[in-house]
Amino acid sequence: MVWLGILFVAIFCYVPMFGIILAFKDESARQIDVMKIIFEADFVGFENFELFLADSESKNVIWNTLGLNSLMMLINFPSPILFAILISELKKPTFKRTVQTISYLPHFLSWVVFGGMVLTLINTDTGALNDFLLRLGLIKKPLEIAGDPDAFWGLIIITSLIKGVGWGSIIYLAAISGVSRDLYEAAEIDGANRFQRILHVTLPGIAPSIVTFLLLSTSGILNSSVEHILVFQNPDNISKSQVIDTMVLQYGIQKGNYQYATAIGVFKSVISCFLLIGSNFISKKLTGKGLY
Known about the structure:
Layout: H1 2-14, H2 34-40, H3 47-54, H4 56-76, H5 78-88, H6 93-104, H7 111-121, H8 128-136, H9 149-168, H10 170-177, H11 181-189, H12 194-205, H13 207-219, H14 226-232, H15 238-241, H16 244-254, H17 258-286
């Protein structure tokens, strides 16, 4: 059974690494056959990387990627932890299972379906959200949420929270269940209230899980959920919605510029690697815990 996983990783993760050579090939060679580009196009060194860093569009794309993902990390990373702690504090099993089930459900919807529901809800003319806010008198005219560049980051963060906070809390619930009940009983005997038990027993007990996911989140700060972005991306908000991953998709698939797209992807991967090594080093120095 392990061989199936090894085969999957080998085919989809290691074999495609041969294509990295495209990043160092002449960007002007636009043959449809990728293998011809790999073996026949001129080698130009780091020219494609220089083009990307010198491009005025790339500066905005890098800023969008870092800004959006940093906000998502600041808000979305602690949310599953807090949600898992709240669920673990529920005393009634039936209510606890109900809350868990409801929070998990959005995860099983694709972004196309879930995003379509959200777009229908926030539609300027027929959306229920605008109608509700107008009836309450909180707004005087319908909000242009989907087409407003300034609202795009907030839309992405809120939808990712709704869709992922329940599913993301599963690993932390498992970690909380592994904390010895004797520690809670000892803290209660010592006079610790519920908040103090969470602070001094629960959080230290799940600290290894928190550190692991924090390091992975830090190294992946340049990664974006392409399907999530594309569902809400449109010409009106492109100035805020264009990120590195959507730029790779645009140049690689839509424009057929495989060399330039590969260079962007390699640039992102190298930065992510350095972020992982650096954050792991800092974590081990400060907390004594790390991925390796």
